[in-house]
């Protein structure tokens, strides 16, 4: 809303629509984004962005470089380089910086400040029991040598969200325990210092998790089984041709398995003609339908989705300075909100010692 109309018609508390979305989400910048991210989070973001354009509300998109450093402290170049890549991926897919405040976590010092205060509300045993963190510690093989910053990232994530008073949080299902911990912090803070924050709700995408091209349950850069949004057509074709199908389907004439067949999983997710896919599945099960026919179809379907994204991305990537400008401007906008929240936090926590000198 423009400032002028806000001044002309002062909004009473009761006038304020209660359904206005206040959304915050983010990516850890550790590498380029792939098809799994596209289906699992980017599409969901674009949908929310459109909803906010139509109905009002605010959308913060954060590049969580501080969080990425919690397990990449030894590799700052990777995090720095991925920052622009991840911004490019989101912009190329249609994230619009006029509608979505795109900002960088490390440049909002209020998040770090709030994290420190929240740490007093959380115990070490609670952190160790957080299922998300527990799984990730096991996966990364940290054991007792887990960096303290990594162990407490759910606290820092609570601060990411609450610095912006966000309530609707798009995340993957693996992040639900992290948001549960945010809500515990909300309750404790409000009880101890007076009500300030609202509880948060996860917004889960309906897309199921996409397998890698090798048939592993998860597509991921580190597993080397991903199709990236920035892949060239030749590379996409090559990856689709390598895709895991049914290892026992050695003769075209023999029946093949559709379940667990990655080509069908991707056709189900992307092909605009589900009726034709149903027929192809029946044919494959019966026998007589070869993998190459299906893979050619999938290549075409993926190219239709990814070509405009890749072209826009290449265009944007010509001027990385412009991308930095977008993030810089978004960070300045976000910072104003963060400072306003911090003033409230300070008065609630009775650490607004010098406030009276301002009057
Ligand atoms: N932990 C999130 C992930 O790995 C990224 C993230 C950081 C985030 N801060 C956030 C998501 C705040 C939502 C809200 O996907």
Main attributes?
about 350 residues, mainly alpha, three-stranded parallel beta sheet, two-stranded parallel sheet, 16 helices, about 55% helix, elongated, disordered N terminus, binds tryptophan
Task: Give a description of the structure.
The protein is 56% helix and 7% strand. By secondary structure, the protein is mainly alpha-helical. The strands form 2 sheets. It has a 3-stranded parallel sheet. Strands 4-5 form a two-stranded parallel sheet. Strand 1, helix 2 and strand 2 form a beta-alpha-beta unit. Helix 9 packs across helix 10. The longest helix has 29 residues. The radius of gyration is 23 Å and the shape is elongated. The N terminus is likely disordered. Bound molecules: tryptophan. The site of tryptophan (TRP) has 13 residues, from strand 1, helix 9 and strand 4. Tryptophan binds next to strand 1, helix 9 and strand 4.
